[in-house]
Design brief:
By secondary structure, this protein is of the alpha/beta class. It has two domains: about 5-125 and about 295-310, 3-Layer(aba) Sandwich (Rossmann fold), CATH 3.40.50.720; about 130-290 and about 320-330, Dihydrodipicolinate Reductase, domain 2, CATH 3.30.360. About 35% of the residues lie in helices and about 25% in strands. The chain is built from ten helices and 16 strands. The strands form three sheets. An eight-stranded mixed sheet has the order 10-11-12-7-13-14-15-16. Strand 11 and strand 12 (about 230-240) form a beta hairpin. It is globular, with a radius of gyration of 20 Å.
């Protein structure tokens, strides 16, 4: 079988530190082309990761006759990138969130369906060993029926300032806030893993926010979601947790409460355990996400034609639309906002 001719659009931080390193240990890939409007970024990553072509010209990018493209550009560019892939009949892996509006999500879905391409979404949390183990535990009834999930992802997005002394703004955090804030960016993952773990669907949701900074979107958000299996999920996301502190802070944890026990995962304390009537069972701690396993699963899906084990564009649209709705409700209910 010929190697997959692989390309990537968007040569920013997530491509540099997550996607491209994950490909290093995977065989059967021809690193064909990188595209970025900033040619210097494309050339830098091409040299570091061994890509044949680096370009800021989309026609030159597609001239590489690619089989599969990862879209790691900012969310506002996803729809245009997906349209380009659909026009060329090329399968894609699209970063989350899918798009910046409900309408753009719907248009992306229509483009992909009309073109007949396979479009997956980079919900990398599904592929972490912890997430897979939680799904297994829930499927075997280890804690009975899940009734409550508390899913927390609070951090500082590398801080408000690159330099606390000069107050030079961190453009990465600034960009995420202007795109839609932490629930739009990270809450999509929490919505998706709750669906992945249980097979249930969200049926109602609401959002509450708070503001440490004066952006339109809240920098700390609580999303409350009721699911079709009778479960309630509280998903909390922040990029203002310690954002002006000298030392970095993070609170990342899952608490899953069932009728017969509790599953606990806490990244800060490296805890992963099950507690029920039989006592405490401890599991190997691991990071919450795994890009390499995600790519292996997606390459396999494309090879076999069986996409049942990977998140598709429809999954991305579900999580993105709910995250947008929760963020918008939080903004509408902001203290002092017009009623």
């Amino acid at each position: 079988m010929d190697d997959i001719k692989f390309g990537l659009m968007g040569c920013g931080i997530v491509a540099h530190y997550r996607h491209l390193p994950a490909l290093q240990g995977i065989a059967g890939i021809r690193r064909a082309a990188l595209y970025s409007p900033r040619i210097a970024s494309a050339r830098e990553l091409a040299a570091e990761f061994g890509f044949e072509t680096a370009t800021d010209d989309e026609s030159a990018f597609w001239a590489s006759n690619l089989d599969l493209v990862s879209i790691t550009s900012p969310s506002g560019a996803h729809l245009a990138n997906l349209r380009s892939a659909a026009d060329h009949g090329v399968d894609v892996i699209c970063e989350k969130p899918l798009a910046e509006t409900m309408e753009a999500c719907d248009e992306a879905l229509q483009l992909v369906r009309s073109a007949g391409i396979r479009a997956m979404v980079a919900f990398c949390y599904r592929f972490g060993a912890v997430s897979r183990k939680i799904r297994e535990l829930l499927s075997t009834g280890a804690i009975g029926s899940p009734r409550t999930m508390r899913l927390v992802f609070n951090w500082d997005c590398r801080g408000k300032y690159l330099d606390l002394a000069t107050h030079k703004l961190n453009e990465r955090r600034e960009g995420r806030m202007r795109e839609g804030g932490p629930f739009f960016d990270c809450g999509v993952h929490l919505i998706d893993i709750a669906r992945f773990w249980t097979g249930a669907e969200p049926i109602r949701w609401r959002g509450i926010g708070s503001w440490a900074d004066d952006y339109d979107a809240p920098d700390h958000v609580w999303g409350h979601l009721d699911f079709s299996n009778g479960m309630h999920v509280m998903a909390e996301t922040s990029i203002s947790y310690g954002h002006v502190c000298a030392n970095r802070l993070m609170a990342y944890r899952y608490d899953i409460i069932g009728t017969d026990g509790v599953i606990r995962y806490d990244k800060t304390s490296s805890t992963f355990e099950l507690q029920n009537a039989q006592g405490v069972q401890t599991f190997a701690f691991a990071e919450e996400k795994d890009f390499a396993e995600m790519y292996r699963a997606m390459f396999k899906a494309r090879s076999t034609g069986d996409f049942s084990g990977v998140p598709m564009l429809e999954d991305g649209a579900i999580a993105t639309k709910i995250a947008l709705a929760i963020t918008r409700e939080a903004m509408a209910e902001r203290p002092g906002s017009p009623s």
